[in-house]
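pasting for the record
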Amino acid sequence: MIARINLQGMWELQLDEEKVGLRKPLNDTIALPGTTSHARKGKRNQSVNVDCLTDEYAFEGWAWYSRKFFIPAGLAHAGVKLYLERTRVTTVWIDGEELGTQNSLCAPHLYELKKPLAEGSMSRFLVYGHSEQKEARLRLTVRKPFCGASMTA
């Protein structure tokens, strides 16, 4: 069985054009799924590309995304995974603990939480992404073992 926590909606955002690292508090917000260009984050793009699509708002640098979420009853166990798709390079933390880094545009990034979460509590994801990130669709999934086999869509 797969249970999901919907992480769509408003996320805290910090654009880091100088690549100096995370500065708290994050100073902006963005609706995900979405792109920094669609959300009009960064500088208005004055160039016109003829060999590819031209983003209306260009941003080069790092981007930091953060979101708190509630852990409902029954999902506070090991095996919880964060699923990111349509990103390039990401690093993910949950409640300050780094889960790792992944680098692939053609495959989803799947981060497995190392420790069970506290039922009925709030947790926080922090996601770092390169500016090449086109879209982040964020979905938290929980996979429970199923008689030695599993099937996901």
